[in-house]
Design goal:
The chain is an alpha/beta fold. Helices cover 35% and strands 22% of the residues.
């Protein structure tokens, strides 16, 4: 068995026992990838991996026949495979799985991912089992990134920053729409080895930048605009997520300078607050207070940050009310912003890792106010 996956399987079993669960059910996605190292897609066929707390029991997989060969060739761990075909359906495989799970009384499931189809199979063939939320079992482990995981984050960041620099170097005011710039950025990311993700870059200009989750459109980017980039990629499955805001062609006016300066200071305050033992909400408060003092508090309308890993949004949430204490190896974003409807928005987002005595920003792209596309 692959040593990394063997260690993770052991840790999952320890967490199951600690949280008084007999078994964890996973479907294709980030948690299964974390545990197995394999990236299966979630299609229309039922696919469930059962991991019991009992070390003597190998994982049991109700697996589509089409995927079974991939598991056999690539899997880092032994398991009982119960393949099913489109002709037979998954019922017999689930019946066999139930016979192997006779001692299971409490089953953790992925509350945010398991579909009705898999849930109905579990209910039909394991009718006496108590189903509970299983996310805490693996999310607790995924919170802390090891050196190999952090190296993947670094590589993803390097790809993003290099791609952004390329796009800016050839940008001319009035020559392209948001969509065209978005497409160029996507190409630059892929050409540098970035992996395909389901998250499209945001390239927002002018008043469009006031929408934190807007969509790149057909608006032409012109002289005097605010120009905001928010985009991601992955390396080895691990995300980078970066936002930078620029001013197009002309030096920004006084209002633009004031808002940009406040957001930059909020970003700095958030990063400065990060260290082991600090509650997540304290980092949010540190960044938010700067914008409140600048009379921009009502215009900071989202949390200060979110965890990064195999998923672009995972724990820890850097938000008021989250009293989780930061620990070494946690990776998350610091991304304060100010959004003024009808005028525009400014956001500066960095990816940070908690170190033994503080914080390191994995992102290094210039945070100073910059004018791009000067003629």
């Amino acid at each position: 068995m692959n040593p990394m996956q063997s260690n993770r399987l052991e840790q999952v079993r320890e967490q199951l026992k600690a949280q008084k669960m007999d078994c964890l059910a996973l479907i294709p996605g980030f948690n299964m990838r974390y545990l197995t190292g394999l990236d299966f897609s979630l299609f229309e066929r039922a696919f469930i991996m059962f991991v019991q707390a009992d070390e003597a029991q190998e994982p049991v997989l109700v697996i589509p026949e089409l995927e079974a060969a991939n598991w056999r060739h690539e899997s880092p761990m032994p398991a009982h495979l119960l393949p099913w075909s489109d002709k037979t359906g998954p019922e017999d495989a689930m019946r066999q799985a139930a016979s192997m799970l006779k001692g299971v009384e409490t089953l953790g499931v992925e509350y945010l991912r398991m579909r009705v189809m898999e849930r109905e199979l579990v209910g039909r063939f394991l009718p006496g089992v108590r189903v509970v939320r299983g996310e805490p079992v693996i999310s607790h482990l995924r919170l802390h990134k090891d050196a190999a995981e952090i190296a993947c984050h670094r590589k993803a960041v390097q790809i993003c920053e290099s791609a952004l620099a390329e796009v800016l170097s050839t940008f001319l005011p009035g020559a392209e729409t948001e969509r065209q710039i978005c497409n160029r950025l996507t190409g630059a990311i892929l050409n540098r080895g970035g992996e395909v993700t389901p998250v499209e870059p945001l390239v927002l200009s002018g008043a469009n930048s006031a929408s934190p989750h807007g969509r790149s459109g057909e608006r032409r980017v012109v002289q005097g605009d605010i120009l905001l980039f928010d985009f991601v990629t992955t390396a080895g499955g691990y995300y980078a997520d970066i936002t930078r805001t620029f001013f197009v062609g002309d030096p920004p006016d006084e209002k633009m300078r004031v808002v940009y300066s406040a957001v930059k200071a909020a970003n700095e305050a958030g990063r400065a607050a990060v260290r082991p033992g600090v509650a997540c909400q304290e980092v949010d408060r540190a960044a938010r207070q700067v914008l409140t003092d600048a009379r921009l508090g009502p215009h900071f309308i989202h949390r200060t940050g979110h965890g990064l890993g195999l998923d672009v949004h995972e724990e820890p949430g850097i938000v008021e009310g989250n009293e989780m204490r930061l620990e070494e190896g946690m990776v998350f974003t610091i991304e304060p912003g100010a959004y003024l409807e009808g005028w525009g928005g400014i956001r500066i987002e960095d990816d940070v890792v908690v170190t033994r005595d503080g914080c390191e920003s994995i992102t290094t792209f210039n945070r100073e106010l910059q004018v791009v596309g000067s003629i």
